[in-house]
Amino acid sequence: MNLVEQRVIDFVAATASKEPTPGGGAIAALTGATGAALAEMVANLTFGKKGYEEVQSEMEELQTKAEAIRNRMLELSQADADVFNIFMNALGLPKNTDEEKATRTAAIQHAYKDAAMVPFEIGELAYQTFDLAELASKKGNQNLITDGIIAAINARAAVKAAFLNVRINLSGIKDEAFVANVTAKMNAIEQNLDAKEAAIISLYK
User: Fold this and answer.
1) Which of 107, 125, 155, 191 maximizes the CB count within 10 A of its CB?
2) Each residue's pLDDT tens digit, 177-188
3) Number of separate helices (H) and strands (E) present in the chain
4) What is the pLDDT at residue 3?
């Protein structure tokens, strides 16, 4: 069964089990999905509310973007488990001849890159959620301001968790240019994380 089609209680139990998946990457994606969902909820509960007439179009755009991120995050939760299984299959390839060794090495390197890029996309999407959380907190239904702020808190957690998974997979990749490029992109995103989260948290006074 697809991970995200499970009941919450079963998903959490599977995470706690002796099985390696779902693991940190899937949890990062789920955390990111809930962050986007909270921002989306604020938009949905701002529609048609008295006093918020002027922000309806912004809330509609927020809802559309948050829904897209939420759905993609759930897909990535499953993808993270899938790439782990592909990696394990690559490790299990035969290595009796030079040709088999070369094939196995190439498969492992390809799997490492896939295993890095799935959580990288999770982190990138979670980072995009900050703007949605800020808009929800500033202009959305103010009865739900803390939900908008929690969206940002979850987004930060998702970025940090996802990028940890990226880095552990980068450590096995021999393509130095690939590693340098992805690392630079992560560093640029992480540079602003604390400030962005703090700015949104400060909206609740």
Assistant:
1) 155
2) 999 999 999 999
3) 7, 0
4) 75
Q: Which two tokens stand for residue 128?
A: 């995009």
User: Please, what sign has the CA dihedral across residues 72, 170, 158, 21?
Assistant: positive
How many C-beta neighbours within 10 Å does residue 11 have?
A: 18
Query: 3-state secondary structure string, 97-139?
Result: CHHHHHHHHHHHHHHHHHHHHHHHHHHHHHHHHHHHHHHHHHH
How far is the C-alpha of 114 from the C-alpha of 66, rounded, in Å?
A: 25
Indicate the helix (H) or strand (E) that contains 66. Answer: helix 56-91
Q: What DSSP character marks residue 181? A: H
pTM, entire model: 0.93
The pLDDT tens digits of the residues spanning 26-67 come to 999 999 999 999 999 999 999 999 999 999 999 999 999 999
As a whole-number percent, the residues of the chain with pLDDT over 70 amount to 100
Question: Could you give phi then psi for residue 42, rounded to 5 degrees?
Answer: -60, -45
